[in-house]
């Protein structure tokens, strides 16, 4: 298989079909724009299984995704897309950079769900941007596409809040990425995993996501395994 791209958490391989690629989830863990890095054996398989379950559920909800099927423990066959270089972050509860930037106490429930855009650019440290910034950087062709990203972000959130609540987890915030397929449709791409979400246990309030790694708070493998087991159960 010809490697097309290798990122911090994934490898993308070519297939015989020009419209499809294989996405492999790596065991590597990074935080703070790659400043903190480590490896956790089995994490790739856990994330691959978790994101597959979530994307299949979202697909059923009418949210178009790049997922075609999972092909082995760490790999998915996905539609090839042109990634829109915007990280769409949706927040229900204050945490992370929102708490730091605006001085909101971690855990404060926001009066309504908010959507933020970040410019996907490691050299610039993924800065927070507004619609005008996205337009002058040509990150999308039309402003309506930004509205679509917000609309999908909120729709995904509505579904996932209930989905995780059923398995005893609070969805604090998450990041999603979208791409354009060969026909120019905007579809959900990348992943939704505990690397890209904040998930807190409803009963204990315990963090069960990448913050465990970011701040050396505990065993991510144990937490991710627990999430997968609840999703399967
Ligand atoms: N997030 C992500 N990748 C990034 C930045 C953020 O997956 O490059 C996720 C993060 O895990 C959290 C949400 O987006 O669930 C909001 O992250 P935040 O802006 O609070 O940044 P952080 O403090 O996590 O760097």
From TrEMBL:
Enzyme class: ligase
Keyword set, alphabetical order: ATP-binding, Ligase, Nucleotide-binding, Purine biosynthesis
SUPFAM superfamilies (alphabetical): SAICAR synthase-like
EC number: 6.3.2.6
Keyword ATP-binding: yes
Catalysed reactions, semicolon-separated: 5-amino-1-(5-phospho-D-ribosyl)imidazole-4-carboxylate + L-aspartate + ATP = (2S)-2-[5-amino-1-(5-phospho-beta-D-ribosyl)imidazole-4-carboxamido]succinate + ADP + phosphate + 2 H(+)
Family: Belongs to the SAICAR synthetase family.
UniProt xrefs under NCBIfam families: purC (TIGR00081)
Protein name, UniProt field: Phosphoribosylaminoimidazole-succinocarboxamide synthase
Species annotation: Caminibacter mediatlanticus TB-2
């Amino acid at each position: 298989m010809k490697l097309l791209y290798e990122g911090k958490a994934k490898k993308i391989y070519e297939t015989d079909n020009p419209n499809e690629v294989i996405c492999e989830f790596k065991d590597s863990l990074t935080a703070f724009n790659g400043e903190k890095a480590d490896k956790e054996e089995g994490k790739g398989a856990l994330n691959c299984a978790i994101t597959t379950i979530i994307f299949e559920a979202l697909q059923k909800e009418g949210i178009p995704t790049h997922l075609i099927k999972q092909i082995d423990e760490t790999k998915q066959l996905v539609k090839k897309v042109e990634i829109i270089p915007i990280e769409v972050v949706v927040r229900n509860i204050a945490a992370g950079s929102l708490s730091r930037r605006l001085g909101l106490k971690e855990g404060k429930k926001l009066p309504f769900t908010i959507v933020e855009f970040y410019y996907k650019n490691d050299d610039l440290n993924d800065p927070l941007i507004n619609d005008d910034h996205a337009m002058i950087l040509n990150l999308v062709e039309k402003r309506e596409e930004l509205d679509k990203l917000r609309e999908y972000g909120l729709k995904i959130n509505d579904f996932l809040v209930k989905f995780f609540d059923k398995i005893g987890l609070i969805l604090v915030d998450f990041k999603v990425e979208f791409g354009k397929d060969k026909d120019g449709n905007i579809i959900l791409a990348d992943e939704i995993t505990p690397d890209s979400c904040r998930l807190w246990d409803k009963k204990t309030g315990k963090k069960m996501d990448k913050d465990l790694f970011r701040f050396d708070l505990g065993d991510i493998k144990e937490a991710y395994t627990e999430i997968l087991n609840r999703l399967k159960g």
